[in-house]
Amino acid sequence: MNGLTEIRWHARAGQGAKTASQALALALLRSGRFVQAFPEYGPERRGAPLRAYTRSSNRPIRRHDAIEHPDAVVVLEPSLLSEANVLEGLAQDGVVIVNLDAPAPQLDGARVTCVPAEKRGPKFANVTMLGAVAAALGEPPLEAAQEAAVQVLGGKADAAEVRAAVAEGYECLR
Length: 174
Prior knowledge:
Blueprint: E1 4-12, H1 17-30, E2 34-41, E3 49-57, E4 72-75, E5 95-98, E6 111-114, H2 125-137, H3 142-153, H4 159-172
Parallel strand pairs: 1-4, 4-5, 5-6
Antiparallel strand pairs: 1-3, 2-3
Helix pairs in contact: 1-2, 1-3, 2-3, 2-4, 3-4
């Protein structure tokens, strides 16, 4: 991965997009990249649509604005496909990684990767998608993504289950 890579996450508040974005940034940081991770909330209530962002670069990042032309879009909540234009601004060679078994009609014309992230239950969908994003980008390494997810989640989930969920997402793209 060279230059600047930008990822936009779509989810509902409480689904862990902010956490996954931060874990990805931490793993990339530990891999020697410069990073940013931040959320953008609408109404601050559980279940409200939100966006989270992750930027990664091989040089210091001086920008501090929302990501308008992402290289990857991650959709944790499939119902948002009918509520938000998740393809908005997607880079020409960008990819959409969506928590579905099969592509949705709203994504026609886009390069789409489907990851059934809720096999382990909704509690692990965000870290499963984290693994899929790492595989799609080719970085950070699986182990770095797993350890970052464990650290960011702290004691909220069993470390072995978190590592397994990240690996499951990673393997969906291998």
